[in-house]
Write a structure and sequence with these properties.
The chain is an alpha/beta fold and 242 residues long. Helix content is 48%, strand content 10%. The chain has 11 helices and 5 strands; from the N terminus they run ααβααβααβααβαβαα. Helix 8 packs parallel to helix 9. The radius of gyration is 18 Å and the shape is globular. The protein starts with a helix and ends in a 6-residue tail after the last helix.
Length: 242
């Protein structure tokens, strides 16, 4: 355990120096040291599908049930910005050696007063890091969501999503998924029906709709990578009784 903490603090010190050189706006990654340490204590599930990002991923408590038959791992941590994904890349992504990576980030970056350009730069740096380390891995980027509590940042959310979608285009290892539009009412404002009382995080209906949008994409990408559909694998595992 001592060695783990020493390595973690060394990484944090280096990252803090790097962040200071760029800007003073990124939150201190050390605020997650306990949560990341807990991830590190768990035996890594390798070669599957890692979901990572901020609280929208962390709070998806029914993730395994919502993607039955798929080897999904939840490595979300609440309040994370893209720079935190960079700092903790080894623990939340690399040790799992995923075939498929599903990401959600960006909203907290804008909330922390990063510009669209800074949020975009941090997010794409993380995505580029994942691709460089695992060039055969496919990545599904789920768009930044809108929420009633953060209505003031909606124009920036749309601008960031547009830049991310453009960046993903033409990369056969990237796939951009619009998980924002369904959250809007006919007036293009965030629909409270999809949020819990804090008007920021998704409720059961919000997650159900997100799952409806995302699951076919996840299964399609998984089949591309493994060459075996989930239906075929499920059938092969059925016990035949006479």
């Amino acid at each position: 355990m001592t060695a783990i903490f020493l390595r973690s603090f060394l990484i944090l010190a280096l990252a803090a120096g790097s962040a200071t050189a760029q800007t003073a706006l990124r939150p201190n990654p050390a605020r997650f040291i306990n949560e990341i340490s807990n991830f590190g204590k768990q035996e890594p599930e390798k070669g599957g599908i890692v979901f990572t990002g901020s609280s929208s991923i962390r709070l998806w408590s029914s993730l395994k049930e919502d993607f039955p038959g798929l080897p999904v791992v939840n490595r979300g941590f609440g309040g994370a910005v893209s720079n935190d994904l960079i700092v903790y890349f080894e623990t939340v992504v690399a040790r799992h050696e995923p075939k498929l990576l599903v990401t959600y980030s960006g909203g907290n970056d804008l909330h922390e007063k990063l510009s669209v350009e800074e949020a975009f730069a941090d997010y794409t740096k993380f995505l580029g890091m994942a691709h460089e380390r695992f060039p055969q891995t496919h990545i599904i980027l789920t768009s930044v969501k809108i929420a009633p509590r953060r209505a003031d940042q909606i124009p920036k959310v749309h601008a960031l999503n547009q830049r991310l979608e453009t960046w993903c285009a033409g990369k056969d290892w990237m796939r951009f998924v619009d998980s924002t539009s369904y959250l809007a009412d006919p007036q293009a404002a965030p629909d409270p029906a999809y949020f819990i009382d804090d008007n920021l995080h998704l409720n059961q209906a919000g997650y159900a709709k997100w799952k409806e949008i995302l699951e076919p994409v996840v299964r399609e990408e998984w089949e591309k990578l493994t060459g075996t559909s989930n239906i075929e694998r499920s059938t092969s595992n059925v016990e035949v009784k006479n």
